[in-house]
Every structure is written in structure tokens, then in C-alpha cells.
Amino acid sequence: MTFVNNNIFPVHHEILSREEKEKLLHQRAKVIWFTGLSGAGKTTLAKYLEEDLWKRGFLTQILDGDNVRSGINNNLGFSPDDRLENIRRIAEVSRLFLDCGIITINCFISPTEKLRDLAREIIGEKDFIEIFVNAPIGVCEERDVKGLYSRARRGEIKEFTGITAPFDAPIKFDMEIQTDLLSIEESVKKLLTLVLPSIQYS
Fold it and tell me: Is residue 60 part of a domain?
């Protein structure tokens, strides 16, 4: 349920426009949304993609699940309602970055189509690039330096995606990156074929 406060008066029309900021930065703002299991490689790809875009002169911001949950969303757990609120807040923050003309690279499991649709609706279809970072769960467990999967299998972590909570494979993604089949360099090269045309300013 949306809470309506009659004492709030947005002033979006009074501040510099997104278009003016994109012109200053000489780029088109987009939200690149990485979805996939824990350990699939979302954050790793985001870091390498950001580094490549930075070298090309683009201004970016990475939003990562652990970082966001240690700050703005530190009051949320992993219940269905909390997962929904987690994604809602992230999407709203992403929209603020869009208004600043900044390319935002998001790394969130976002395990259901409902959650991804919510993010897409808030951010806007034309600004939302969904990347399915895909790897078999066995590969994700092998990469799990934090030991989260083993803890989840022992019952120490409740509502863990892929073990005790579902992950719905995306059906509306713009690109799939199979990180068990491609190297990081190959993955980033593939990503750039999709991302660069959408962010280049003309």
C-alpha cells in the first residue's frame, strides 16, 4: 500500500533536467540491472564493466546488494515483504541517479519476476537494461568464499535464494551472460556490445 502525504510538494520541474546533466557528462544515463544467484558473478562483472566504461570516459555508480543492505536498507530482512521493499528502495535510488545523468550498475539477486518487474516499472522500461548473470548453482557454491551456501544447507541461514527460497529464471532479460562458459574479459566484451550503443551521447 502506498502512503500518501498531502504535505509533500515535489519540485522536480524547478531543478536542472536530466537532459542538461547528460549533456554536461556527454552520456546517456541507464540502469544496468544484473540479476542472478549469489556467486553467479554479478559484482565481479559490474566492477570490470565499470572500469572499462571509466576508461572510456563514462561516469558510473555501482549499487551492490551487500553495500545497500549495510546502509540504506539495513533495517530489512529477507522475508518476501522485505525483499520487495529492498528492491523498491533500490529502484527509487537508481531513478535519482538517472536524473543526475549517471549510468547505474546494479547487482541484486532480485529472485522473482515480480521484483524485477517492480524495478522496471519504477525506473522505466526505456532506461532499464536487464542482464541475467547465469551460472549453475553447483558453480555458484564452488565460488562461495563466504560459505553462505553451506550455512544455508545446514539451516543456519533462512530464506536463502537457491536453497530455501526460490529463484525464478528471468524471461524478459536483454542479455544472458553464462559466467561458467565465458571468461570475465569475454563477458565484459559481450556486455559492451549491448551497453555502449545505449549510453553514447549524440
Answer: yes
Which helix (H) or strand (E) element contains residue 60?
strand 60-64
Q: How far is CA 167 from the centre of its chain?
A: 15
Q: Is residue 13 part of a domain?
A: no
Residues 109/35, Cβ–Cβ less than 8 Å: yes
Of the residues 110, 150, 198, 202, which is catalytic? 110
Does the residue 65 lie in any domain? yes
Q: Is 110 a catalytic residue?
A: yes
Looking up residue 44, the CATH number of its domain turns out to be: 3.40.50.300
Q: How far apart are CA 17 and CA 190, in angstroms?
A: 32
In this prediction, the residues of the chain whose per-residue pLDDT falls under 70 are 1-14
Give CA–CA dist 195/50, Å, rounded.
Answer: 11
pTM higher than the cut 0.70:
yes
